[in-house]
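User: Fold both of these, please.

Assistant: Here is the first one.
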Amino acid sequence: MFKNLEPIFESRFWALALKEIRQILRNKQLLFLLLFPPTIQLIIFGFALSPDVHNLRLGIVDLSHTEVSRELVSAFTRNHIFQVHAAPKNTFLLGEAVRRGEVTAGLVIPPEFKRDIERGQPAQLQILIDGVDANTAGIAAGYTFQIVNQFSFSQLETPFNPPVTTQVAYLYNPGLKSSWFFVPGVLGVVVTLGCVLVSSATVVREKDTGTLEQLLMTPSAAWEILIAKLVPLFFLLMGEVLVALTIGRVVFQVPFRGNFLLYMFLAGLYICVGIGLGTLLATLARNQRQVVLTSFFINLPLIQLSGSIAPIESMPAFFQILSLANPLRHFIAINRGVMLKGVGLEVLWPNALTLAIAAILLLAISANQFRKQLS
């Protein structure tokens, strides 16, 4: 078997690949970019990105001062959704507290609150919500309506028997853990940043150090030089994917229900996309500073249109169509499909086909640009 591999070990490609591996191992900054930022980003974003809202600051003006009003206040604070932060004496002071941002929501209980409930009449409540943060305001309003409705049913003398009952079963994420949704998306973002920055920095370093001219003096062909640069990066970035998967599994308990080999194959396709994009940027830029600035210009739209942070369904129709050309969107769909649902190529083949086409196009264009530079 080793005799069959001797032509590879004695080839110019193997010599160039060993040169790249030695350069990568000596480059402490590159190894730092490969390991430390992705780990920190995945942990921070996994914990920080969450649509769940807890401990909203609540201001209460209780003009009733009865056991019924106190029971209503207890219903608001029982599940730690709201936390009583202020109790102004009148509605004017409550409005000022909302205006200054001291409380997120305000609840006004009128003096006749208990009397209206005992008489079976509709009891009025006034609720003030700070709408500057539209997302938090919408969630706070939804929580408020649910709490008030449940409290109303609890005050009925006869049991409430609705004509229709509903049983909801949450599939693939029974605990509704937001980290299970965000971590696969952030994993795609981390891999994208690593692929583009590291591959572009590796190629453009030859320009900055002046070793590109030395490569021209060797008898190696342009494709041998380029492949020798990209193959070691490919395996290093595959290692980054394994590190990210381990963090997601150990730190956030994100399940992995699909085929591991299939996932690594599809992740390898996306790494080829990222390497192709990074190499293309390196061939277009003159130095490493231009590569970094250009990569930010490219990466931010890719991330925003990928569905990693905001659902694609909430975007305008034009951007939903535009996101179909975004390879990161398809890789994140693969992440969530394989990790959370355990689906295979019978479902993910459109995403895999898109990644394969994008990888071929970007690698072909970047290889052509690199060959032009060498010539």
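And the second sequence with its predicted structure:
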Amino acid sequence: MKKKFVYLTASVVLTFLFLGCKKDNFKAPESTITGRIVYQGQPIGVRSNGVQLELWQYGYQLFNKVPVYIAQDGTFSIKIFDGSYKLTRLRTNGPWQDQTDSIDIQLNGSANIDVPVTPYYTVGDDTYAFNKADSTISGTFKINQVLTTRAIERISFHVSTTNIVDLTNQIAFASIDVAPPANALTAPVTLNLDIRPRMYTAPNQAQAKLLLEDILRKKYAFVRFGVKPVGVAERIYTTVKRIELP
């Protein structure tokens, strides 16, 4: 009996090793779905990896959603196996009107799609200027209303040392987040960033001081505007731009 017990245990071990090797030998997905979140054919700027879509593959007894994260320029890309999929937009996940319909994707190698949305606002025509005399960055942009169902809650002006710029990727304290002016929809909005390192002396502002010293030494920075509708967590953003600080 003892020998039989040892023999069966060894067989089980070999079986698991075999199955483990088979699992390790599975090929990684090689097909690609790429696309853009668009309004009237133009990509929508969002917070980097802050907004997502969901990809579902039907036809199996068990299935799970695959999150598809959207880059700050409104594009996305995911590696996955060939098959039939449905791409859905999450409710209240982006700065646009909810859309519950899905997009069918038949993937065979690669697919490129545009995902249309209707934002509450669009933003653009942004310009920036650096005033060396007082180390301020002045920025102006326009807000266009698309839907009247949500007012503007906040407008923001973000500055960063890298080209990933948004509410969570910025130089804290140096960036601006304020209520909109009364004429935000009828005239260009102008905001001014004070990037003088000596202005940020509080203990919790030490990191901001170092980062501001860094961009002034390098003589460039990355900037972007954002608009937050009431009752929506995410903002719509202008395109990230690099500005020179001569």
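Residues 2-24 form the longest helix (23 residues).
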